[in-house]
Amino acid sequence: MEQERLSSYIADPDLPTGLEQKNVIIQRDRFGYGLTVSGDNPVYVLSVREGGAAHRAGINISDQIIKVKKAFII
C-alpha cells in the first residue's frame, strides 16, 4: 500500500536569534494533512487540527513553511 508523506523544512537557516528550524515529516492520514496554510514564500500555518497528522508531527499555528518535499512510501 502506498502512503503519502510531506517532509517539511520549517523556518530558515539564516533566521534571527530566537527562532528555531524544524525538519518534520507529516504522514497523511485518512483526513489529510490536518493543517491550513496561507501565503507564498514563506507559507504560514493558519490552523492545525488537534490530533491530526500535522499536530502529531509537531506543527504549530504561525509556523513558517519554507520548503516542502513530497515523498511516497511503497
Q: Specify the overall morphology.
A: globular
* Structure classification: mainly beta
What portion of residues is helical? Answer: under 10%
Summarize model confidence as the mean pLDDT: 80
Sequence of secondary-structure elements = EEEEHE
Q: Give the low-confidence spans.
A: none
Count of helical regions? 1
Sheet of most strands = 5 strands, antiparallel
* Separation of the first and last Cα atoms: 6 Å
Topology:
Elements: E1 3-10, E2 22-27, E3 35-39, E4 43-48, H1 53-57, E5 64-73
Antiparallel strand pairs: 1-2, 1-5, 3-4, 4-5
Domain PDZ: 23-74
Protein name: PDZ domain-containing protein
GO cellular component, one term: cytoplasm
Structure report:
The chain is mostly beta strands. It has a domain at 35-65. It is 7% helix and 47% strand. Strands 2-1-5-4-3 form a five-stranded antiparallel β-sheet. A hairpin with a 3-residue loop joins strand 3 (35-39) and strand 4 (43-48). The protein is globular, with a radius of gyration of 12 Å. It starts with a strand and ends with a strand.
